[in-house]
Amino acid sequence: MIEAIGLTKRYGSTTALDHATFTVAPGQVTGFLGPNGAGKSTTMRMVVGLDRPTAGTVTVNGKPYAEHAAPLHEVGVLLDAKAVHRGRSARSHLRALAATHGIGRARVEEVIDLTGLGSVANKRVGGFSLGMGQRLGVAAALLGDPQTLILDEPVNGLDPEGVLWIRTLVRYLAAQGRTVFLSSHLMSEMAQTADHIIVLGRGRVIADAPVSEILRRAAGSMVRVRTPDAAALAEALRAPDVEVASVESGLLEVTGTTAPAIGEAAARAGVVLHELTPLTGSLEDAYLQLTADDVEYHSGGLPGPAVNGVPAHAAPAPMEGAAR
Amino acid sequence: MTAATLDPSGSVAAVPGRSAARPVRGLTFPGVLRSEWIKTWSLRSTVWSLGIAIVLMTGTTALVAWGGSTDPVAGELSAAELIGPGGYFAQLVLAVLGVLTITGEYSTGQIRSTVVAVPRRIPALAAKAIVLAVVAALTTLVGVVTATIAGMPFHDGLGVTLDLSDGETLRLLGGMPLYVAGIALLGFAIGALVRSSPGALGIVLGLLLVVEQVVAAIPLAFFDRLEPLLPSNAGSRLVMTQANVDALNAASVGVDLGPWQGFGVLLTWVAVLLVLAAVLLRRRDA
User: How far is A183 from chain B (nearest CA, A)?
Assistant: First the structure.
């Protein structure tokens, strides 16, 4: 359980985090999402006391991180893959961390096996690939068998197998009742792993909701209807908040009502339907919509998909994963 | 989501639940000390530089003794004084090691792992300082022994004898590990304040090699008074014969310091800088 209240961080005149208030609950994977520079890493660093907040408080499992008697048993954190001396071997790094809490060698070997580092554990970290570095970071996070895990961009630099491994791992950890707080700037990654999403834009929390809710918010819900008698159906659906758009001859997109309601209305009016498809906005669309005004660095010129609030097109729900 | 049943490596199930067999001892200072001890010996660069310090001490002492024994006009040296020049090199190596012990953590990002494991931070700084002091003193002690042995074949030629029952000989030999440990801690404290390897190395080596030597040459009374109080000028009195200390005091307009008083001044520098470093460590973002 992580609780942030009014958490604020300023660097000079730059506000990295602006009165962020949120709770990360146990037993689920909470995605922490936002464009680069939105303040995700800053927030996570403040949770474990690396940075001190300008204002506000953040507690983990009921206390500020530094006040726990055994911090590594409370929180495991992967901040970035480079928090390791390059000249030390992975095994020595883990043993040194473990020693602070009296964690034995057996556990060190356990996390080495678990993260698949066995073959390189005695090699110096300086020669590690980004992916290996991430695995070592995850190993360090798991060392204390903590109740809460904070992973900043864990799939960064991992190969497809590694991405799948992280996903499986975080879901498994959450299923054990642990708190898993995972950041990414990739919505698609979140769609695969998270139950709940907190979206950050320019240091402010702009959404904090279950994934399904975020999806529902995306572009409302739209239903695609194909019928040879479009005019009659449009007439039958007429209601104050229902909007019917004719995309092409015989194809309508209806917002403001549901697929069953349209089906029933069509049956009552005796209109034949050839297709009736509820369209859910993709998480990606929802994300772009939410953060459209809050991106720190806008790329200019290139025609991109739907940056302006309205998604280019709502796509059916399951989306392409990050594992390609 | 089917992820929980996916098991690409066959190892996810091995994430143990809270195993009752594993006692949770929590964060303790002896644990932090052990951690820093492991860190020290798991860096090849550290092991190398300690070895180099010992070789330099031994080799330099042998050269000095050999040179003295073949040059009848060389000044009189006691057996214990022979290790002085070697100790000078050892202090430089250990001062550099002291700096890198802490700045290396900042340059590599290791400091974040350290601070996450020891979020109150000060125990980590203290443990580092203690381990460094012990390692520096032990290394120098080994160097003193090997250097003394290396000088022995030349004792006859020099016309000196090693008398371990002599108080001054014991102070010169036994003081060297203490002095070098003090200088290593000075480097460490400056490294902790500056946090950048090049910056801190520049300050420490500049201080030891240049500033302390030339300060007396500045024709202002203030610098003349300051000169004996500089860390190494004061501390190195511990590894000088009483005759040399007296000569220094006579030549200086500043305060007169005995060997142990001088060492006390060095330790005061170290203590003040370490306290400052501790305060900043608590206040700065890691």
Answer: 18
